[in-house]
Specification:
The protein is α/β, with parallel strands linked by helices and 260 residues long. It has helices at residues 30-41, 53-63, 75-83, 109-136, 158-177, 198-203, 206-211, 222-233; strands spanning 21-25, 45-50, 66-69, 90-93, 140-145, 183-190, 243-246, 251-253, 256-257.
Length: 260
């Protein structure tokens, strides 16, 4: 249920998510915030998890959700987060990020470790904590926000592509291990998505970050991915969308982008 600092908004009659509790990680910005907003509009009882509680609390008040502090790289934080939840029907593992764009020969191993900790180990940590509740729900959804970087490699992206390949194989393995349990395992693999922070965090320079999208007509935005996530979660529960690759029309492949 919503916490004391939030107020539930009216759920539309027949809303597809009515009665279901959805946890969204990395919900303070970008795809996470857009997904939380969309799921709340679809009637889900949304629980937001992230480190930046100022942003999280503001979003929760706006969409009628519950905000809880969560650092998926910290075992105590994950335990406290999981302990605050009585029920979970949906887990959207969205928290992650890229923190460098260096070639392997110039690898910063601290950056590699951070990338793996956030994208892979943190995701495993929270999934392990909440999986019993997903199973107990009788119709759980375990969704991973991966990346096309988890399906193909490219120069200057090895720390991130290695981590996202890890997320991809995590989803595939869980689907095999949970084949006899009432839990769907879904992976959304976005291509070029223009958000406020992702590329800036990676290259640490606003001009370089903006150059990534320069000349690209209509790159994807966070709401596009949120729409895809909501669609997969609201299919009849016998329908499992194993993997959805989502790119803007201008991006034919990782290296082939039309710029005007």
């Amino acid at each position: 249920m919503p916490g004391p600092s939030s107020q539930s908004l009216p759920v539309p009659a027949g809303a597809p998510g009515a009665g279901r509790v959805a946890v969204v990680t990395g919900a303070s910005s970008g795809i996470g915030a857009a997904t939380a907003t969309r799921l709340a509009a679809d009637g889900f009882d949304v629980v937001l998890g992230a480190r930046r509680m100022d942003r999280l609390t503001e979003l929760a008040a706006t969409i009628g959700a519950r905000a809880l502090p969560l650092d998926i790289t910290d075992a105590d934080s994950v335990a406290a987060f999981a302990g605050a939840l009585d029920r979970v029907d949906v887990l959207v593992n969205n928290a992650g990020g890229a923190f460098d764009a260096s070639p392997v020969a110039e690898a910063d191993l601290d950056s590699w470790a951070r990338t793996y900790e956030v994208n892979v180990l943190g995701t495993v940590r929270l999934t392990k904590a909440l999986l019993p509740r997903l199973i107990a729900s009788g119709a759980g959804d375990l969704l991973f926000v991966g990346s096309t970087a988890g399906l193909i490699s490219y120069e200057g992206g090895a720390s991130y592509t290695a981590a996202k390949h890890g997320v991809h194989t995590l989803a595939e393995t869980l689907r095999l291990e949970l084949f006899d349990q009432p839990v769907r395992v879904i992976e959304i693999a976005p291509g070029m998505v223009k958000t406020e922070e992702f590329t800036l965090k990676r290259v640490q320079d606003r001009e370089r970050a903006e150059a990534v999208y320069r000349g690209v007509r209509e790159p994807l935005v966070a709401e596009d991915i949120a729409d895809c996530i909501a669609w997969t979660l609201t299919r009849p529960h016998h329908v499992n969308i194993d993997l959805m690759v989502v790119r803007p029309r201008a991006q034919a492949a990782q290296h082939k982008v039309h710029r005007e």
